[in-house]
Amino acid sequence: MSKSALIIGAGLGGLLCGQILVRKGLSVTLLEVDTEPGGILHGFTWEGVRCDRGFHSVGGLAPGEPLEKIFRPLGLMSLPWYKADPDEGLAFLRLNTRSDFELAHILGPFRQSTWRLEGGGDTLCQALAKGLDIRYRKKVTSIENQVVTCDDSSTFQADYVISDLHPLTTLELVKDHVRPAYMHRLRRQENGPDIFSVHCLLEPECVPWQSGAIFLDDSLMIHFDEPGTHILELMCFGEGNPEQMIARAAQRLPGLKVRKYHCQMNQGYGIMKNTNADFIAAATPLPWLFLTGQNLGLHGILGTSISALNTCKSINA
Ligand SMILES: Cc1cc2nc3c(=O)[nH]c(=O)nc-3n(C[C@H](O)[C@H](O)[C@H](O)COP(=O)(O)OP(=O)(O)OC[C@H]3O[C@@H](n4cnc5c(N)ncnc54)[C@H](O)[C@@H]3O)c2cc1C
Description:
By secondary structure, the protein is α+β, with helices and mostly antiparallel strands. The chain has helices at residues 12-23, 66-71, 86-96, 100-112, 120-129, 167-173, 180-188, 242-252, 300-314; strands at residues 4-8, 27-31, 44-46, 49-51, 58-59, 81-84, 114-117, 133-135, 140-144, 147-150, 155-157, 160-163, 195-202, 213-216, 220-224, 231-237, 258-266, 289-291. Helix 1 packs across helix 9.
């Protein structure tokens, strides 16, 4: 009889694990608190326009490059990817990367090649969700002895439980005994700062659309959406002042006129990775419980994809 896996969270990490394990012949169910797949990766609708949130560009998708090697067997290379200016990815990383360790491992693939996707993160989420058994509006509230309980009292049981949540959040849901030293290690991990995004709706024709992204001195990044949307996104680490961010962007883009803006804060890349940080493995002290997602190895779409592969390899099914 085929083994079964329950995946908590249908973010990029959970969806990738789902696709890989289904291909390995496991019976897989995903439990997702949201009403759509993708977590940080799916977009949102504002002013009638679908805007991206946790997806701008990816590195390393040309033949033989790291992300391509993961995406091709999953059929994701047939999506409408198109090449972007490598400076776009590098600019983003200068803003978002917090350690030499991350720079070395994430910057390389962006240098090799940088890509955008038609339809943005939503296109990737829909492709990743295809064919998977995802139960939406299921907030997991406890995990005990291979049984997962949700806030509507529904319960699910499987041979393996994989969590795409922050490792500490996951272990706080676990009711089984976990050795204190492991919990202590998780509590010691430092989280990286959140990313503050300001989506700006521009006055029609006020700025000629430019491709790519502009990086302003360590603290502000201007990202241009697709032509015709009149949406410009400004990003910084930690709580930002939207008016000041718009004023600084206007110095760089004379004639910039913002009609309305929309702010949001998102978990930016999870647990800090630097040479002082502990390595968090996919396996946990409980033989049936595994971790995945951006908090494990490297961050971002490439990092989360590598972690998903590692998680699935750790499950000896
Ligand atoms: C502003 C921003 C811009 C970014 N831009 C880029 C980029 O251009 N390129 C790049 O490579 N990376 C980018 N990233 C990073 C990338 O989006 C993330 O690293 C990746 O999407 C993380 O996926 P994940 O599965 O680890 O986490 P998440 O997306 O957080 O997935 C966790 C899932 O678990 C669900 N969940 C949470 N609690 C529960 C519960 N109790 N029960 C059930 N479900 C639950 C959540 O709803 C979510 O779906 C960006 C991130 C941010 C914030």
